[in-house]
Amino acid sequence: MEGKEETLALVYLDYAATTPLDLEVQQAMREVEGIFGNPNSIHRFGQEARRVLEGARERIASLLGVRPREVVFTGSGSEADALALLGVALAKGKGHVVSTEVEHSAVLGALRLLERLGFAVTRLRPDRLGLVYPEQVEEALRPDTILVSVMAANNELGTLYPIREMAGIAHAHGALFHTDAVQAVGQVPFRVDEVGADLVSLSAHKFYGPKGIGVLLVRQGVDLFPLVPGKQEGGRRGGTQSPVLAHGMAIALEKALRLLPEESSRLLALRRRLEAGLLSVEGVELNGHPERRLPKLVNVTVKGADGEALLLAMDLMGVAVSSGSACSAGSLEPSHVLLAIGRSPRDARASLRFSLGRYTTEAEVDRAVEVFREAVARARA
Fold this sequence. Notes:
The protein is 41% helix and 14% strand. By secondary structure, it is an alpha/beta fold. It has two domains: 11-20 and 260-379, Aspartate Aminotransferase, domain 1, CATH 3.90.1150; 23-256, Type I PLP-dependent aspartate aminotransferase-like (Major domain) (Aspartate Aminotransferase, domain 2, 3-Layer(aba) Sandwich), CATH 3.40.640.10. α5 (134-140) runs parallel beside α6 (163-172), α8 (243-279) crosses α12 and α9 (307-316) crosses α12. The longest helix has 37 residues, at 243-279. The protein is globular.
């Protein structure tokens, strides 16, 4: 209409990077934000905060099939990953670690540090669909292997890994098993007592909880060297905890798991709709496994396109997607995950990750496909 600016309807399809804070979670956090005491103090202010913190710990433990004392609060999923790998290795003192080439940057960074400290590291290469197989883990194990770390779901491809079988193989050889489940928890069924992992990383902001808090689940009996010294969290992670963030994380996890069956089916239908639209564009190819994948995630390569132009065009036309992990945003380097599955550096740069979430609608999916078609044409010009 003349005299009025046209309002651009923004579409957010980057839920794998982060999710908005759920309004119920926000309200629950507000109800306890006045509880300011240090949960490690013995006076009544501290004990009031302690009750909130331990209530959250018990809730999370019950939802994921562990004991409350096996829940270690951290500042993020990345910190949980680092604590798992470095904490186990430093407690052992020496040995061999097995992981993959497609792990999150937090795990890859910890592996590089372990190598500098004198530990041996084997990184398993995925196939072209991004999968790593139990047989590869078995072949990589050595008498001095202390830990196997394989993610539950890939953060760029959405590929799901057979971690239960891998955990069994690691245990049969006397090694511990860690899984980065940051992208899996709240997205697919997951309980530690069913998976059999010794250490599990998760992060609240991936399932509509607050940023700034994660958890490392540590099976009783696993020796862990603290990266942050202190008496908090059973001596495994120093620093004053936030009862408010812990409470928000517990409420968010509870809601995510309650909605999971219905939401998983809804997202899968939306993903297939989105995928069909994206792949109908000439020269667009799917990355990752066609079926063994998170319901919410689609990663595609656009042949013959300029990657930066593609991403900018999508954003300018109001659709937020990513070119890979949010933790590597701003980097001109191609995705290590896409390179590992055989993409060339040029094709890896010309790839986009679409991730759907709780508030995604059919109309938004259709709008994203429409914008994608135009963005591809521009990026190929």
